[in-house]
Specification:
The protein is built from 15 helices and 14 strands. By secondary structure, it is an alpha/beta fold. It starts with a helix and ends with a helix.
Length: about 375
C-alpha cells in the first residue's frame, strides 16, 4: 500500500488532527500528512500523547504517526494519560528492527515490540501485508470504540513509496531582535497563592493543571468542570493545553505548568510553531521539584524560562512576582501567537486533600463542559 491508501483509511475514520515525527522508511506519508490534515510536527514523541489527549477531550479525533522507535519514549505517557483516563489514541508506526534492518540500534527495542506492548496492556495490530490497508481503518475504529491506545505496526515490505516528496523550504529570513534585561525579584507568592490568583480571574476559560500538588491546589482553590486535573504524565500539561487550544480555537486555554516539567519537555518550540492565539502557559517556577518534596532542580538560579520561551519563538512573554502582575499578564489575551508567563514563586506545598474524582469523572465532566 502507498501513503494515499493510508491517508484514505485515516480520513474514513474521521481523523482530523495528526501529530508526527517522521521516519525515512515512509517519507512520502510524512511529506503528505501536513497537507491532508490539521497537523502538528513534534520533536519528541510523547508530546503527541498529550496533544492528542487534549484534542480528543475538546472534541477532535486525533492520531499520531511516527517510527516505532519513538514508542519507547511514549510508554509512560500512554499508560498514565491515555489508559488512565480512557482516551482513544491510534498510533501509526513504521516498524523498524524487522528482518533486514541495517541499523543495529533499531533492533533491541523494535524487534520484540509486540511483546513489549502486550506486557504493557497496549493493543497492537501488525499489518498483514501490502494489500490490507483496511486493517489500519479497523484498528483506528477499535481505538475509538474502546477508548484505548492502539498501535498499528507497518512492516517495511507492506509499504511502497510513490516517490512523493516535498522540496526543503528555504529558511525564512525573518528579522529577530531581543533586548532583554532580567529583573528577578524575591518571590512573594507560593504556588497556591499563584493558583488562587489564576482561578480567581477565570470565567469560561479552560484550565489545565500540572500533575501532583498543583492539580490538588487548583481543585481546592476553585473546582469547576472546565478544569482538567492531571494525575500523571510528567511534562505533558502544556501538550494537553496545545491539543485543546488547537481543537477549540474559540476557547481561551490556560495551562498551569511547572518549571521542572517544562525544562523536561520539548513542547515550547512546538507550541510557538503551531501559534495558537488562545493559549497561555503560566509557568510556576519555584526552583524545586515541589510535588516530590521540594528537592532543588538543576539550574534553579541560572535557567531563565522566559529566555527559553523567546528562543523557542514566543513573541509574548512576561515575568511576574506578585498576584496583580499575574492577573494583568493573563488578562492580555489578544495579539499574535501564544503567551508565556513566567511566575516566580516561593517553594512550598499547601496542605490540601487529594482530588475526590476518578479519572473517568474528570474526563467526562470536562468534555461535557466543552460541549455547552
Amino acid at each position: 500500500m502507498d501513503e494515499d491508501q493510508i491517508i484514505l483509511e485515516l480520513k474514513k475514520q474521521g481523523i482530523d488532527l495528526v501529530s508526527s515525527v517522521p521516519c525515512d522508511r515512509a517519507k512520502g506519508l510524512f511529506f503528505k500528512l501536513p497537507s491532508e490534515f490539521r497537523h502538528i510536527g513534534l520533536t519528541r514523541e510523547e508530546d503527541g500523547v498529550g496533544i492528542s489527549a487534549g484534542a480528543y477531550l475538546a472534541g477532535a479525533r486525533p492520531a499520531i504517526a511516527l517510527q516505532s522507535s519513538g514508542l519507547g519514549n511514549m510508554l509512560n505517557a500512554i499508560l498514565s494519560l491515555s489508559m488512565t483516563f480512557g482516551l482513544p489514541l491510534p498510533i501509526l508506526a513504521s516498524w523498524r528492527g524487522c528482518e533486514g534492518e541495517k541499523i543495529p540500534a533499531q533492533i533491541p527495542f523494535n524487534r520484540p515490540l509486540p511483546g513489549i506492548l502486550s506486557a504493557a496492556g497496549i493493543a497492537c495490530t501488525e499489518i498483514s501485508g501490502p494489500d490490507a490497508p483496511h486493517e489500519i481503518g479497523d484498528a483506528v475504529a477499535a481505538a475509538y470504540q474502546k477508548r484505548i491506545p492502539h498501535v498499528i505496526l507497518i512492516r517495511p515490505e507492506c509499504l511502497f513509496e510513490t516517490g512523493c516528496s516535498a522540496p526543503s523550504p528555504e529558511p525564512a529570513m525573518c528579522p529577530f531582535s531581543v533586548c532583554y534585561e532580567r529583573n528577578w525579584r524575591t518571590p512573594v507568592m507560593t504556588r497556591y497563592d499563584a493558583i488562587r490568583a489564576i482561578a480567581g480571574g477565570v470565567r469560561d476559560e479552560v484550565l489545565v493543571a500540572n500533575i501532583g500538588v498543583p492539580s490538588k491546589e487548583l481543585y481546592a482553590a476553585c473546582d469547576r468542570p472546565e478544569n482538567f486535573y492531571m494525575l500523571g504524565s510528567y511534562t505533558q500539561a502544556s501538550a494537553i493545553g496545545l491539543g485543546i487550544a488547537t481543537a477549540r480555537p474559540d476557547k481561551q486555554v490556560i495551562v498551569i505548568d511547572g518549571d521542572g516539567s517544562l525544562l523536561g519537555s520539548a513542547i515550547l518550540p512546538v507550541i510557538a510553531a503551531a501559534g495558537p492565539k488562545n493559549l497561555s502557559i503560566a509557568c510556576l517556577d519555584n526552583g524545586v521539584f515541589g510535588s516530590t518534596g521540594n528537592q532543588p532542580r538543576p539550574g534553579q538560579d541560572t535557567a531563565d524560562l522566559v529566555l527559553m520561551a523567546l528562543g523557542a519563538g514566543f513573541a509574548r512573554t512576561w515575568t511576574v512576582h506578585e498576584p496583580w502582575e499575574l492577573e494583568v499578564a493573563l488578562a492580555a489575551k489578544t495579539g499574535d501567537g501564544p503567551s508565556f508567563v513566567h511566575v516566580r514563586i516561593r517553594p512550598g506545598n499547601s496542605d490540601v486533600p487529594n482530588i475526590p474524582l476518578s479519572p473517568a469523572q474528570i474526563r467526562d465532566r470536562f468534555m461535557a463542559s466543552l460541549r455547552k
